[in-house]
Amino acid sequence: MSDENGLLELRNQLDTIDNKLLDLINERMQIVHKVGALKAKSGGAIYRPEREKAIIERLEKINQEKKGLLNKSAIEALFLEIFAISRNLELPENIGYLGPEGSFTHQAAEARFGAMSSYIPISSIKGVFKEVDTKKVKFGVVPIENSSNGIVNDTINGFSKYNLKIIAEVVLDIHHTLASTCDKITDIKKIYSKDIAFDQCRRFLTNFGLDEAELIPIESTTKAAKIAASEPNSAAICPHVGAKLYNLPILFENIEDKDNNKTRFFIISDFENAPSGNDKTSILVKFPNEQGALVRFLNDFNDAKINLTKIKSHIVEGNSIFFIDFDGHKDDENVKKVLEKHKNSVKILGSYVKEVNDI
Ligand SMILES: O=C(O)C(=O)C[C@]1(C(=O)O)C=C[C@@H](O)C=C1
C-alpha cells in the first residue's frame, strides 16, 4: 500500500473511533442531564470537585494498569473539559476571576474549569467576593498566597467580610517574561508591571542593567503588556499568555529570581464540599486577648492528632488574626470536636481536596 493510501486507511479508522467517541460522550451527557434534573429538585451543588477528582484518579489508575498511551495531565485535561461541558449542561454557571483576561488568576481558573466555561474578569479581589456573594457569578477565583510575597491581604479581608466558602485550591508555577517591541534592551526606558512581579524579578533587572529604567507599578501584569504594546521604549513584565494576547514580542522567558515561584489560588462559592478522604481545611482564628490563647489552641489540635500545615498571622482593622490550614475535613470527628470547642474564635473558610502541588 502506498503511504498515501496508508494514511487514508488510518484516517478512516480514526473517523470510526471518533464517531464512537461522540456517541459515548452524548450518552454520558444524557446521564448528566438526569443528574442536573435531580440536583435541580434537591438543590444539590452542581460543581463537586471531590467527585471530579475521584473520577480522574480512577481513570489514571486504570490507564496505568492498562499501560495506556495517555499521561496523567492528558487525562486530566480531557476530563476537566468534559466536566466543564457537563456542568454547563446541568446549569450554565459563570466564573468570576481577578482579571484582566490573561492574568495568572485567569490561568488558574482555566486550569480548574477548562476552556469551555464562561469566565468574567473582575477588577479587584473585593469585587470577586462581592459578585459571588450577590450571586452574579457562581464561582470566584482569587489568589491567596505567593511563595515569594506571602499572603494576599485582600483575600483574607474578603473572607473576614463575606461568608463564602473555599471549595477548591489551585497551585500554579508562576513564570514571568520580559516583553517589548524594542529590538535592543538598552532602548527600554520604562517597564510596566505589578509591584510584586518587580519584586520577584529583581535579580534579572539588575543583571541586565534594567534597574536603570523607570519601573512603573500598575494593577495587573496583563495590563502592563497592553500598555507596553502601544508605548515606544517600554517593556512589560507579564505572563507568557499576556504578551501573546497583545502581540508583544517576548525578549526573555522565566525571568523570576526563584525557580520555585508559585501562587496558590482559592475557588470560592456559596456551598460546602462533602469529604473526599484527602482534604484540607482553612480557617481564620481571632484569639481572645488572653495569655496563652494561641498555645492552648495549638495544643488542642495536637491532642486531636490534626496536622497543621500552615499558620500565618495577619492584621485586619488593627486586630491580629491567624490564617491556618490543616489536614482533614471539617466534618471529620476529631476536627469537628476541636472546632466546636473554639467556635467563638474560629471562622471556617472551607474544606476542599488537597492539591498535590503545594506551596
Ligand atoms: O456527579 C455529579 O454530581 C455530577 O454532576 C456529574 C459530574 C460529571 O460530569 O461526572 C459533573 C459535575 C460535577 O462537578 C461532578 C461530576
TrEMBL record:
Gene (UniProt): pheA
Principal location: cytoplasm
Biological process terms in GO annotation: chorismate metabolic process; L-phenylalanine biosynthetic process
CDD domains, sorted: ACT_CM-PDT (cd04905), PBP2_PDT_1 (cd13630)
A GO cellular component annotation in the UniProt record: cytoplasm
Catalytic activity: prephenate + H(+) = 3-phenylpyruvate + CO2 + H2O; chorismate = prephenate
Residue ranges annotated for the Chorismate mutase domain, each copy included: 1-94
Keywords: Amino-acid biosynthesis, Aromatic amino acid biosynthesis, Cytoplasm, Isomerase, Lyase, Multifunctional enzyme, Phenylalanine biosynthesis
Compartments, as annotated in UniProt: Cytoplasm
UniProt-recorded name of the protein: Bifunctional chorismate mutase/prephenate dehydratase
Pfam families named in the record: CM_2, PDT
Pathway: Amino-acid biosynthesis; L-phenylalanine biosynthesis; phenylpyruvate from prephenate: step 1/1; Metabolic intermediate biosynthesis; prephenate biosynthesis; prephenate from chorismate: step 1/1
EC number of this enzyme: 4.2.1.51, 5.4.99.5
Organism for this UniProt entry: Arcobacter ellisii
Domain Prephenate dehydratase as annotated: residue spans: 94-270
Site annotation Essential for prephenate dehydratase activity: residues: T263
Domain of life of the source: Bacteria
Molecular function terms, GO-annotated: chorismate mutase activity; prephenate dehydratase activity
Domain ACT, first and last residues per copy: 282-359
Role of this protein: Catalyzes the Claisen rearrangement of chorismate to prephenate and the decarboxylation/dehydration of prephenate to phenylpyruvate.
